[in-house]
Amino acid sequence: MSQIEKHPPKAPCISAGHQLALEWLKAGPKRLLIGGKWVEALSGRTSQTYDPSTEQLLTTVAEAGVADVNAAVIAARRAFEASSWSGISPHARGHLLYKIADLVEKHAEELAVLETLDMGAPLSATRGRALQVAEIFRYYAGWPTKIHGTTNPIDASRFQYMLREPMGVCALINAWNVPLVMAGIKVSAALACGNTVLLKPAAITPLSTLRLAELIEEAGVPAGVLNVLPGSGAIVGTAMAEHLDIDKISFTGSTSVGRQILNASTGNMKKVTLELGGKSPNIIFPDADLDRAVLAAVDTTCRNSGQICSSGTRLFVEEGLYDEVSERVSRLVATYKVGSPFEEDTKLGPLISRQQMESVLSYVHTGREEGARLTHGGSRVGDQGYFVQPTIFTEVNNDMKIAREEIFGPVLSIIPFKDEDDAVLKGNDTIYGLAAAVWTRDVSRAHRISRALKSGRVWINTYAEGDSVMSFGGYKQSGYGRELGAESIEGFTQTKSVLMRL
């Protein structure tokens, strides 16, 4: 059995940042940010956000509607065209992003606690995410002075050059699983390029994003440059995608909703970036460092309780090694504690909601019906909060539902392969192509497999490491466009060619 909390959680040690988070929650209902003002939704509608560990109410949040989207677009368009934003130097824009980074770092513990309360990830993980957001803003703070145009060779009677300009008003729509990091990635890149923003956090995890927006306002971003609209994806997200005065949409979420966003965006042919689902292959060859490979396989299964689109949910193991790796994975995952996300030794907090918990458990049931062998986990933990044991299936084939569909929970399928060709064939046999990994000491094999895998990211002898310079995005139905790195600058800018007759 996993190390499962059998007694009431110990009272956490309240840090200064933790106290600030609790005071912020107690300060009253949270509002929309439109045109530099925190306002109620025009409809007066609100929603509640709950702690998935305790199922207790955290706070009430204003719920945006179509009218609020329209008001925010007007504010963002006005701000985009104002000299207070469009007319500032790239140095000033960079300094502003550095100031945001410093504020995020100063309030990192507070942001981390809000994220843990709102979506359940262990505080040990959300602390790192908050600091990561500060570094992302610092990375993009260096970009405004480096978004260059070009002069192009032409005959002596003419002068031709290219400008790289901001897209304009950008709608940024985020998923619920890592809200703070996603907000940081999208907002920092959009602002670095000189755009204005409508940001929609997921309705069930808006809190860390709303607090981040307050810090961005504190840094001195002009009114209307950042607008934040928590609310229903079906209402707010659709309104953004359909709006004729929004120039760009960047969406992170499920593949099915991504299709809806794409269809809705055709009215004005707005530019679209989609970061969608995954069913990532994690491939272990016999010459791998097995200690590191097994640890990474378990960590990627348990990280964020499996609620990560790039998780290596299909573990492919060479046939001669299959029994050993399967046994080691099951033995190691049994040591991972499921419990209060405020305890430092907790590895898995709760899933986000009852609905998500029931969905994950239904996949466990399906896996057993399909003939896969359950070697660990597969059950709910306790009767309060949405905790699920990390779950390992062996004797899985690539045609089973648990190996084909994104479960978004701590469920790992271990699948055998014969040789390199078989590993690539099975690894690519999916509608997704977001991430992948290969474990081997053979450098030539590592590069062959990396090139052959149809995936936006490939790790060699590691899993889930990243850096702000490393772009992220998918092949196939994992989406298109890229976030992070230099490619994200292309996603938030457009080019203009100018020719002058001399």
Describe, in plain words, how this protein is organized in 3D.
α5 crosses α6. The protein is built from 17 helices and 22 strands. The protein has 502 residues and is of the alpha/beta class. The N terminus is likely disordered. It has 2 domains: 279 residues, Aldehyde Dehydrogenase, Chain A, domain 1 (3-Layer(aba) Sandwich); 191 residues, Aldehyde Dehydrogenase, Chain A, domain 2 (3-Layer(aba) Sandwich).
What descriptors fit this protein?
single chain; 502 residues; alpha/beta; Aldehyde Dehydrogenase, Chain A, domain 1; Aldehyde Dehydrogenase, Chain A, domain 2; seven-stranded mixed sheet; six-stranded mixed sheet; 20% strand; globular; disordered N terminus
Q: Quick check: average pLDDT?
A: 96
The name of the CATH superfamily of the largest domain reads Aldehyde Dehydrogenase, Chain A, domain 1
> Which blocks of ≥5 consecutive residues have pLDDT under 50?
1-11
Strands in their spatial order, largest beta sheet: 14-17-18-13-12-19-20
Helix content: 25-40%
Please indicate the count of domains: 2
What is the CATH class name of the largest domain?
Answer: Alpha Beta
Q: How many distinct beta strands? A: 22
